[in-house]
Amino acid sequence: MSRSRTALLILPLAALTLAACGSDDESSSTVAPTVAPTEAPAAPASDAPAADASGVGVSLAETPLGTILVDGVSKTYAMTGWRIGYTAGPAPIIKAMAKVQGQSTSNPTHLAQIATVAALTGPQECVATMRAAFDERRKAIVALLRAIPGVACREPKGAFYAFPDLGAFIGRHNGEGQPIKDDVALCDWLVEHARVAVVPGSGFGAAGHVRLSYACSMDNIKLGLGRLREALLSLR
């Protein structure tokens, strides 16, 4: 299967773009910005590969034709506040996407683009280190949740959230005799009574569930889950 050679271009005051080098045909691959590029001149191209979540360099030149890749830097590089994503695919499709995007959202800042390029093309050892740390936290939070009677929790496969089912506690009463009518009420009670902040699952279409982040230290995970366990088991 044929593949196109790719390189990295930085477009000042535009979005991150990865474009094919040495080819103008429709089989070329382009990683387009979140908005259409401006007419500002591009910086020299670089052949540095992007990286996947495991920290292993992956060149888009190795991607089969017809593949469209959508990704971002929020989770892999802990850059949630930078609000940057990118897409790669056949040039005609990317150009069309850029036209639509350019009329619907604002432009990412130049600083955020440069930071994203640095993340994608810089040393990737930190990604593997972070991935191992989050894997340890993931296993710990799931084990602690499953150890609470009445709680069911699937092992998360991505991001850094656990999504346990606390439906067994809906309808129970707190120490003041007030009923916990739904997952929203449960979350309100937990933050007030146990000082544990969780997000209602009903907002994600899963009533009775809650979302917990494990993007914190292992000590805080153990402390928070200890409080959660004590609070839940106090409901009658």
Written description of the protein model:
With 236 residues, this protein is of the alpha+beta class. The chain has two domains: 117 residues, no CATH class; 109 residues, Aspartate Aminotransferase, domain 1 (Alpha-Beta Complex), CATH 3.90.1150.10. Helix content is 31%, strand content 14%. The chain contains five helices and ten strands. The strands form three sheets. It has a five-stranded antiparallel sheet with strand order 1-2-3-7-6, covered by helices on one side. The chain is elongated. The N and C termini lie far apart (63 Å). The N terminus is likely disordered.
Shape, per Cα inertia axes: elongated
Order of helices and strands: EEEEEEEHHHEHEEH
Physical arrangement of strands within the biggest beta sheet: 1-2-3-7-6
Rg computed from alpha carbons, rounded to a whole number of angstroms? 23 Å
| Main sheet overview | 5 strands, antiparallel
What's the helix count? 5
Mean pLDDT across all residues, rounded?
77
Strand content: 5-15%
Secondary structural class: alpha+beta
Q: How far apart lie the N and C ends? A: 63 Å
The strand count comes to 10
Q: Detail the poorly predicted runs.
A: 1-58
Helix content: 25-40%
List the helices and strands and how they pair.
Blueprint: E1 6-9, E2 17-20, E3 29-32, E4 50-51, E5 57-58, E6 69-72, E7 85-90, H1 91-102, H2 110-121, H3 125-146, E8 161-162, H4 183-193, E9 199-200, E10 210-213, H5 218-234
Antiparallel strand pairs: 1-2, 2-3, 3-7, 4-5, 6-7, 8-10, 9-10
